[in-house]
Amino acid sequence: MPSSKQITTIQLTPETRERLRELGKKDETYDEIINRLVDDHEKRKK
After folding, report:
1. How high is the pLDDT of residue 18?
2. pTM of the prediction?
3. Alpha-carbon gap, residue 40 to 38, rounded angstroms
4. Farthest-apart Cα atoms in the chain, separation
């Protein structure tokens, strides 16, 4: 992730964090996982 982007913190339960980790691909960041999931959701809504 480029260092020029602002970074925030979100609170997750350990269970949710693990679920995200399981959905991730190799070396994918949480930011990338969440963005991919949101993109997929938006595509399905159309």
Report:
1. 97
2. 0.79
3. 5
4. 33
